[in-house]
Amino acid sequence: MAGRYSPDVDFVSPTRFVDSTHPDVVAWATEVVGDAVDDRTKAVRLFYAVRDDIRYDPYVATSGEDQYRASEILRQDRNWCVPKAILLCAGSRAVGVPCRLGFADVKNHLASPKLLEQMGTDLFAFHGYVEFRLDDTWRKATAAFNIEMCTRFGVKPLDFDGLEDSLYHEFDVEGRRHMEYVNERGTFEDFPYDEMVRVFTEVYGGPPGDVAADQHDELFHG
Fold first, then answer.
1. pLDDT digit string (tens) for the chain, length 222 residues
2. Interior CA angle at 126 toward 123 and 127, to 5°?
3. Among 165, 164, 130, 160, which Cα is nearest to 147's?
4. What is the pTM of this model?
5. Contact criterion met (CB below 8 Å) for 80 and 57
6. According to CATH, what is the number of the domain 23-221?
7. DSSP state of 158
């Protein structure tokens, strides 16, 4: 699907949700990239910081708009794929690396039984990722699953070197079906909040947050 933005977008300017000029976002991104001078190294360091410093937890999904601003996401130690992608995008822009948001629907064949019961399906709509522009090429990067969670589920952690796309593995370490991409929703300059709410209502019967935030799931909270 084609991107949803005007052709003159530079993908380094801040937006409502990707508030990359917020002082906290700038300070965090600057610290993460450290002495890196080239865009690829900056993108890689930011990828791993978001992947592993913020634990993946689908039960914290919320419909509160402010919770999808990068500066607010930065205050959390756990979150799900969409906010993690927004923060990664903002961090990238904060250090001058062009970046945009991407969304797709995926089937997760290894989700926990409790989560599948809450969702009523194995379709994970509006999965979030980013695309960095490196050496005039857009590279996809998925920083959703922290390495500890991957170990618990027996799936391969996603790595990113800035040279190849980083997408979910089709099979886990034991050869079982893991992730299946079923629908691309396009790339965006800013987070399409209203579109996400519409899709969640269509697929799950309500906006994010209908899955109880205090629901204990040993596979995510153990």
1. 456 777 889 999 999 999 999 999 999 999 999 999 999 999 999 999 999 999 999 888 998 999 999 999 999 999 999 999 999 999 999 999 999 999 999 987 557 788 888 888 889 999 999 999 999 999 999 999 999 988 888 888 899 999 999 987 666 666 666 778 889 999 999 999 999 999 999 999 988 876 545 566 666 666
2. 85
3. 160
4. 0.92
5. yes
6. 3.10.620
7. P
